[in-house]
């Protein structure tokens, strides 16, 4: 009896030690802004075609179909894990006070830098709306922490990732039947107009306490199954017109990072999602992937014309070999590659000027 209880005590001490040994996260908090690539449920209760809270979405995620546009993890889930958080950063919709302290995710599928972007898909929270939600969250943090100085100090230690722009091309500029922007602006002018607005919005983020900010570039949207199926001449070659417009945007985004870094206390960085995708397409095998063409694991390619997976559609079995999960969104396998290289750059061109691991230590 005595022996058994001392054994139990030792076991409890051992378990407590394991818990203590679990490293604290590298930063106290992580806030996320973006679109469907990182939305984790903010669109679930709004009237929109851009929703993913039904199977087979989340088929490989412990919590099932949460609203993530992936079979499993998104890029920011992978990043939050690498930063040492025990839990994934929760959606702002329905977040508790405790969760506000460690950070929340404001991302909304179909959202853009421009307010009208994505409107043909229904309601969404544009980047402007996400910033309004963030400002409410900051006010709540001030009352939780007691005063503005404490909130400012807390926020200055948080990581922020912001990934906007894909929809301003896909669900705006390159949808001329619905949006007039491609008649109003050349690709160069449109990038300027977007960057002007983005810059003002990011200034709001900075004015509300954000200091460690990573701007995720727009990926190779012209190589997504949807664009390959609809706009590629042979269904195989990436749509150059789209990719070249996105590269103009990305190049100016790098310039914006340099500008922000002249502000007091600012540590901005650029994550070269486009280049990382290019690397994967050049050597899929080296990244453990086999299918990088217009066959998504579910959606277009398996069922032409379809944009999201249909409810309860049976997806491919070998999901970890696919680059794309549905017509627009990468699989967990691809998201994990992007998250890993954003956190710890594999080549100098992955980030500008620093990776997230370095940003966390600033
Ligand atoms: C895409 O690649 C896979 C694997 O190589 C192949 O089985 C499939 O038929 C291809 N799909 C299309 C639409 O070419």
TrEMBL record:
It comes from the Eukaryota. Keywords: Signal. Pfam families: Lipase_GDSL. InterPro entries: GDSL, GDSL_esterase/lipase, SGNH_plant_lipase-like. CDD domains: SGNH_plant_lipase_like. The keyword Signal applies. The keyword Magnesium does not apply. One of its GO terms (molecular function) is hydrolase activity, acting on ester bonds. Residues 1-23 form the signal peptide. Belongs to the 'GDSL' lipolytic enzyme family. This is GDSL esterase/lipase. It comes from Zizania palustris (Northern wild rice). The lineage of its organism: Eukaryota, Viridiplantae, Streptophyta, Embryophyta, Tracheophyta.
């Amino acid at each position: 009896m005595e022996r058994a209880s001392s054994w139990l005590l030792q076991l409890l001490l051992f378990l407590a030690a394991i818990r203590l040994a679990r490293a604290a996260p590298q930063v106290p908090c992580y806030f996320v802004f973006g679109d469907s690539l990182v939305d984790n449920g903010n669109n679930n209760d709004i009237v929109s075609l851009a929703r993913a809270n039904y199977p087979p979405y989340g088929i490989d995620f412990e919590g099932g179909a949460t609203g993530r546009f992936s079979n499993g993890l998104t890029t920011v889930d992978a990043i939050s894990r690498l930063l040492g958080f025990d839990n994934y950063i929760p959606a702002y919709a329905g977040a508790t006070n405790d969760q506000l302290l460690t950070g929340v995710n404001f991302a909304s599928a179909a959202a853009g830098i421009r307010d009208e972007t994505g409107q043909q898909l229904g309601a969404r929270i544009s980047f402007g709306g996400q910033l309004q939600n963030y400002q409410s969250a900051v006010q709540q943090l001030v009352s939780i922490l007691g005063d503005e100085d404490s909130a400012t100090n807390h926020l200055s230690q948080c990581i922020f990732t912001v990934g906007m722009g894909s929809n301003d091309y896909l669900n705006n500029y390159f949808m001329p039947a619905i949006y007039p922007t491609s008649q109003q602006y050349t690709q160069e002018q449109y990038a300027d107009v977007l960057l002007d607005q983005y810059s003002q919005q990011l200034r709001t983020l900075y004015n509300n306490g954000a200091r460690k900010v990573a701007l995720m570039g727009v990926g190779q949207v012209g190589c997504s199954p949807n664009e390959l199926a609809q706009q590629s001449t042979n269904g195989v070659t990436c749509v150059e017109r789209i990719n070249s417009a996105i590269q103009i945007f990305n190049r100016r985004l790098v310039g914006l990072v340099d500008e922000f870094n002249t502000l007091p206390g600012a540590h901005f960085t650029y994550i070269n999602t486009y280049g990382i995708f290019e690397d994967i397409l050049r050597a899929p095998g080296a990244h453990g992937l086999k299918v990088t063409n217009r066959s998504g694991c579910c959606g277009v390619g398996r069922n032409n014309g379809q944009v999201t997976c249909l409810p309860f559609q049976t997806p491919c079995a070998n999901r970890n070999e696919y680059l794309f999960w549905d017509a627009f969104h990468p699989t967990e396998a691809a998201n994990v590659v992007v998250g890993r290289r954003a956190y710890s750059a594999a080549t100098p061109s992955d980030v500008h000027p620093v990776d997230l691991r370095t940003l966390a230590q600033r």
